[in-house]
Queue: 3 jobs
Job 1
Amino acid sequence: MSAFFKREDALEAAQALDICQEDLQSLQAGLALKDEHLCDTARIVALCLALETDSLAQVEIPDCLLDYPM
């Protein structure tokens, strides 16, 4: 989690993961393992693992989704 918050684009990444500003502040305050924040924590951890292992480069995006904002 701390690696995520050290990223320059942490706010933009959180918005892309549908994590609101209030929840993001709660996560920064150390409430990541509380029941109401487990989903957000899982999203952040999954993104960090994907970025660290470069597995996003291996994801195939169907042509029908190319115009969808990612």
Note: The chain has four helices and no strands.
Job 2
Amino acid sequence: MNRKGKISNISLNSVRVIFEDINTVSYELKIAKHISLINLEVGQEVLVAFYNNDLKSGVIIAQI
């Protein structure tokens, strides 16, 4: 499942994303290797690919 959201928090190796359409914040997500953590900002839109529907296991795959 892919879902568009906005970055709500950035830590050393992970990012949390808010999905406003369902009023939910993700667990800490990994970032795909082709995306630089330096280029990410709170409030920026990103595309997240999840391995299942629980919003726990996923990776940020694109900046929008």
Note: Strands lie at 2-10, 15-19, 24-25, 30-31, 45-50, 58-63.
Job 3
Amino acid sequence: MKIQANFFGLLLAAMNTITQASSEDFSLVLSPAVKYKKLSFEQVYPFGLRDPAPMHGKLNIDLVMASLSAFTHISDRLAVSIAYEENLTNASTNSNVPFTNPNLVNEDKNINFPIFNTFSNVSRADFNLTLTYKIGQLMPVWKNTNVLLGYLDGETQINPVPMTIPSSSSSSSSSSSSSSSSSSSSSSSSSKNLAQEHLENGFSQYKQKYRENGLYLGAYWAFTVKEINSLSLMLAYADMDGEYVDNYISSNDNQTIDLAFNFQGKTSGINAAVTWTGPLVSTPFSYSIVLSGQFYDMDGIDVTGKFARPDITYPTINTKEKMLSILLSLQWKAW
């Protein structure tokens, strides 16, 4: 996975920097963690694409994440942290995100399908690199304030489970048997989601990926509680690049057509967190509990040129992600 490769490459670079620093200037803290994350994902196609009608859908899922981070002070003012997290267990949920469910590939507008949700497998991975600078030493009035500059690379992947609407639901009840074989074929075709089409045609598993990567800028405020505990608040604004892609291939009369999406645009949003840290008495470890929220919005433009229409040169898509998390970490001061 690209995000995983970025993490380990930057981790090695950071470790190299640490080994060249003076032992008086830095400390190194390693922190494994478990995170519970509630992810909400929503998409809107305002103009329609493979289907001419506008489309809208969403999913909600609970994820259990495994996280590993490293934190070091390069100097008494500057600190660096690196973190990577991904699903600890497989996670599935009902989804009506566009093109995951059968009713959104309906080609026969005279057929009145019920609304079906498709069972989808969902994964999430994040890489973070953050630089933190204490401005309190420069301006005593801001003694508890730190500014931060970070880089985030995050990816949400949706793998719909192949699904076909039962024939009793995908065709109108009729007392006569006058329907033609071509009509029956169209009804059958329109009752499948894209994952089912890929499966039957022997193509790779159908999947959708949404990725954001870029910078965020913010501040956090740290306060000592009863001399041994600390409470910190963080707020940051993210301005990133966003990309939404899938891998759909259409097959008709033994001809294959690449109809894969590729939407690109700007992603903006807010990161916020509250952290409580305290020692585990009589051990070399401490613990942290972090409550956090991430709220991202992307407006993307089709960059393939495959879906242009006379009235719309550049079809668009809007994607929203909301992630609410609670993290429990164990911290060990390795240096």
Note: Residues 10-23, 104-114, 168-189 have pLDDT under 50 and may be disordered.
